[in-house]
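Could you join me in thinking about how sequence relates to backbone shape in a protein? We need material for that, and I hope you will provide a protein of your own picking. Label the sequence line and the structure token line clearly, so we can match residues to local backbone shapes. Would you write everything just below, so we can both look at the same thing?
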Amino acid sequence: DAKGWETWFRQRGIEPFRVIYEDFVADQTGTLRCIFEFLEIALPEDFQLPASQLKVQADSLTDLWAGKFNRGEQE
């Protein structure tokens, strides 16, 4: 769990590199560049990620259920 990892890092005096999912989705290449920089790994100047094969699967039914969940509705 996240709390366990936080404790593990803190006990060892390690400040981990944190990636926010939404930031990564919005700018995968930029996020990866920051990760590699943090790890002190050089990337080629022309580094680019291949186009993502992922497709959005959410639709209006997803939105309906998410709204019900957020409002605490049971059915």
